[in-house]
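Lab notes, practical 5.
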Amino acid sequence: MGLSGSGKSTLIRHINRLIEPTAGSITIGGEDVIQMPMEKLRQFRQQKTAMVFQSFALLPHKTIMDNVCLGVHLQGIKHDEATARAKKWIDRVGLTGYEDRYPSQLSGGMQQRVGLARALTCDTEILMMDEAFSALDPLIRSDMQDLLLELQEELHKTIIFITHDLDEALKIGDRIAILNGGELVQHGNTQEILMTPADDYVRDFVKKVNRSHVLHANSVMTDQKQKKVLPILRLMKWTQLILYCVRCLGKMQIAVLSKTQVDQILVI
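Output from the prediction step:
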């Protein structure tokens, strides 16, 4: 992620050499993509990677089914198998019954679902998404984020997701890389980005984030041990169960104690 012009789209297009790097290497599965001859690069693009674009990139003269089948046809998959695979992912993204429609007959959110179904039908190891949800309305965008997370729970693919929205990155990203002027200034998980920003650029990014929605308890806990057990909340009579929040061994634990147990602790 990063601001406009930071190099996000340029970077992701280096992976499949839609943009030719001027130096360096890109190693995937032990192979340097930069050194691949054109025929092998073409196979790599067809078999190993798929892409979802911000602008949908659907063919307007083809039906939804034909658009979704496009990638697998390029892979050499026969018609019946291609149609069966496409139908599966059309259904999974919630477009059942729209197979014979054309892109112009669908809303923006539905068109982006077509783009996602097309990429998933290719069944590649790497899925690249270049600001795929940026053009969508907030509610539709949230639905698409939830759909992506649901699918990832099942597929466990390598997904490289480009965004300039930190909230989106925090919601869907296992790890986040922040770019500034073509330079990678910080990468890490969500907790590391929020708690230890690398510089003022990253600090400005995260300063308005509602940390209560993102941080985990262990990110803000200390290792200091408390000598006393501190009762926080007493909800019931002494003859009933009492809910206490207990700090022990540096971790917050919830304990439900009887009156006898509480009396023993308070004596200690």
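Observations recorded by the TA: The radius of gyration is 25 Å. The chain is about 40% helix and 15% strand.
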